[in-house]
Specification:
The protein is mainly alpha-helical and 442 residues long. It has one domain (12-191, 205-436): MFS general substrate transporter like domains (Growth Hormone, Chain: A, Up-down Bundle). It contains 20 helices and 2 strands. The protein has helices at 12-35, 37-44, 48-76, 78-95, 102-116, 119-130, 136-144, 146-165, 168-188, 201-207, 229-233, 236-265, 271-277, 280-302, 310-327, 336-352, 356-363, 366-398, 402-422, 425-431; strands at 222-223, 435-436. A two-stranded antiparallel sheet has the order 1-2. Keywords: Cell membrane, Membrane, Transmembrane, Transmembrane helix, Transport.
Length: 442
Amino acid sequence: MKKLKTFATKYRYRIIFLSFLAALINYADRAAISIASPAIIEDLQFSAVEWGFILSAFYFTYAPFAFIGGILNDKIGARNTYGLSMIVWSTFVGVTATAWNFGSMMIIRLLFGVGEGPQAPTATKLVSNWFPKSESARALSLSQLGTTIGPIIAAPLVVWLTVNWGWRLSFVILGLLGIIWAIVWFLVAKDKPEQHKKVNQQEVDYIRVSVGDDKTPNRSTVVDTGRGMWSYIKTPYVVSICICYFAYSWVLFLVLSWYPTYLVNSRGVSMQQMGSLATWPWIGASIGLIGGAFLADYFVKRSRTGDLVSGRKWIIVVTMICTGLTFGPSAFVASPNVAVTLVTVSMMLLLASWQYQSLIIAVIPDRLLGSVSGFIQFISTLAGIIAPIATGYLVEYTGSYNYAFYLGSFLAAFGAILVSIFVNKSSISKSTSIETNDVTAN
């Protein structure tokens, strides 16, 4: 009797969907304070400089805990790290509703950052565990798509709640959503597909084999030479990615932190209009994130050698340069609609460049992936500390937002140039001494 063929389960897509929801909640929580900022500033009487410090306070703890979260992933696993971080950050999102002055808001924001820090490196570790390397760009971007959809959902929701019931209620509701997610996560998720009873052997085999070459084991793409974490971090390959990721985050956090306030104060739009206009850059970002990811994995599959680096590298270079060319000019055009359109295009290009963690997955051994990805997340998040404060000072002492936009454009182009120079075959094979089967670059 002929044996029926057993098809692979696809449980990995449930895991990535939950990661997507976590990222959505993550950025909805982050965006809430910026969207509600006109009401909060009026209620608690913050100056532009004080507000800049409040926006940056989150990143003072988010940055180191991105690194610490990466290490925790290697120690206690992605499942535990994700669930615990969600509980911590959701608790302090809800507690935001109790803030009464500058000091209390600063403390709450610092503790909020502790919880959110591990999210991005945990998503990276999760993708490495549950997806083939040849699909990592697409899986990571599907996971992180929540970071662009979150503000789209948060903007009208927070504006509506703020106008009708005050700004505090929106934070309580967002906090409760995160706690519900954590309960579901602990019930259905595991660290690796081999540990999950609903994943069959065919799916495990598919995950552990590179799609580009079904004879090449997915986990042997990078040969672990036993070197320490810092020997990888200090290489030109990783350093250039860190700097470009920092530039990416500068523009991202500038838009996330200050753009709603900029629309109201500088462009003269009403609170209700801002709820609509502030969503457009994030719609563009969503399109760019998915488009860049599918293009990156397309380049991998089209490569005869299964090249995991070159296509992703040049996507970063081209889109970051184009981001610089569109972001700065948005500040001096007369029409608010044209300005929002340019920022929307900028955000689409910026998010298409989000191949940074995929480039790390391509060349870092699994043993150190959480730690190294956490470190580059830490470096990128330093922009979240500096950009809001710097913008606050620029606005306070120049009376204009223009210089903040110009600086973002310069950093985007500078980061692209570094990646174009240092992310190459020589940097991978000589500087890091990583032996690879199918990781190449030009």
